[in-house]
Amino acid sequence: MRTHTPKPFYWLTSLLIAVAMFGISCQQYEYSSPGPGILELRLAVKNTRENIIPFNDFSFLNIVIRDMAVLRNDGTYLIVLSDLHAIQRKENGDTLNCITFAARDSQIVLGQVYAPPGTYVGLGLDKMTAVVHDPFLLRFDGNRYTPIAILDVGPAQKFTMIQPPPPFDVKESRKTIVTFTLDLDQSMPRRTEWFEWVAPLVYISSIQYL
Hints:
Elements: H1 7-28, E1 37-46, E2 62-65, E3 68-72, E4 77-80, E5 94-97, H2 101-104, E6 108-115, E7 118-123, E8 132-133, E9 136-140, E10 145-152, E11 160-161, E12 168-170, E13 175-183, H3 184-187, E14 195-197, E15 201-209
Parallel strand pairs: 1-13, 10-14, 11-15
Antiparallel strand pairs: 1-6, 2-5, 2-8, 3-4, 3-7, 7-12, 9-10, 13-15
């Protein structure tokens, strides 16, 4: 005489086997992604005409940065805001004085961002807009201010690399500082009684890994 195992037994057995297989499969694979690093972009200014445009904290030659981006070697872009806590840049952009001691000493911060580890190959110019400047340079000689006109030779330009940029890396939990130097001698040639603004001509002058 045949005996029949109750059907609930089969359901319980199948459930236990499925749970066991699921537990085994979960233990076989561990997924992890690297933590971000910090990317900081700085601006330095090259100026060999200090007898005409002296570095000090009382003269003014302002440029306005509305956006910054860097390009990865895989073709993707990373937007760089003014600091690590910013959610957007100021509505009218960030104003930077290019003839302060901070500019001379590479201490002007263009932006900071938490960045995925990887290799970056330069500025993401497709995601950036033109850099604008004040119509006058205000030079302080210790007693008074002298305004000197700055005339554009054409439409406002984006940052323009005058040397092929070297690639730089961002590493997990590390800080990378990339300094862009604005060559003021080439960007703003002197004329008789004014300066001409050609474009913000820059190059990468320093890469530091901290």
